[in-house]
Amino acid sequence: MKSQLYEMLAKVDTPEDARLLLDDLCTNKEVEQMAQRAYAAKLFLQGNTYAQIIEKTDISSATLSRVSRCINYGGGGYAKFVKRD
Q: What whole-number distance in Å separates Cα of residue 85 and Cα of residue 76?
């Protein structure tokens, strides 16, 4: 099942297509949480401190810690896609 989801995501061509797909797949809260994590990752990769990121995003320290772990020890997804920005 995961591979089918990955195939769907790979077909997304525009931000509008991404919005349409995510709106159908996820609740509004889930999309907001993913957006918050993505923004926190961007700030982290830009050199912001934990305190600065929490102040700018209102993300919990536990969630920010998870984002940090993914950046430092994960598969490289955040770094790959934030760098495209």
A: 15
